């Protein structure tokens, strides 16, 4: 997850190429659940905050201002929300840079976890990254969140490096993970060993 830290602009500059952020809402059935997928708006912020609080057992990594700021980055950021009936059950955000798509945030309600909703959202954004010509998709995950790391590895992400004290509010390091979309990139990299 993207967190606030000094020097943010050096890491997350606007994409040089114009990216396609148009998104048409649709309905999808996942594990016999009918879900609505749509682009997030400011109206979703109260639901985003409630879901985040539920997912993180009361802790809220992002506040209202963080979500509002991200949702207003219309030139290079896409946030999607997933509703079951009228309840927000998942969301994902991605920021497109010159050659990279960076997953800034993803959450799935505990009662909908392990039902392929997270996988569906990740694959949706990975496909959007391919369509926009991204060379890779990246994200950060807490170093102690082994379950999430395994989930990302199943999608093809590889650990690249550790960002020390990335989650400053909880004094925790982050593991940067990358999924290379262009085959020639895979051979040029060295794998991080733990």
UniProtKB/TrEMBL annotation:
The N-acetyltransferase domain sits at 35-182
One function term, GO molecular function aspect: N-acetyltransferase activity
Q: Does the keyword Membrane belong to this entry?
A: yes
Provide the alphabetized UniProt keywords.
Acyltransferase, Membrane, Transferase, Transmembrane, Transmembrane helix
Q: Which residues cross the membrane?
A: 77-96
Identify the Gene3D superfamilies for this entry.
3.40.630.30
> What CDD domains is this protein classified in?
NAT_SF
Q: Which Pfam families match?
A: Acetyltransf_1
**NCBIfam families given in the database record:** rimI (TIGR01575)
Name the UniProt record assigns to this protein: Ribosomal-protein-alanine N-acetyltransferase
**Species name for this entry?**
Lactobacillus acetotolerans
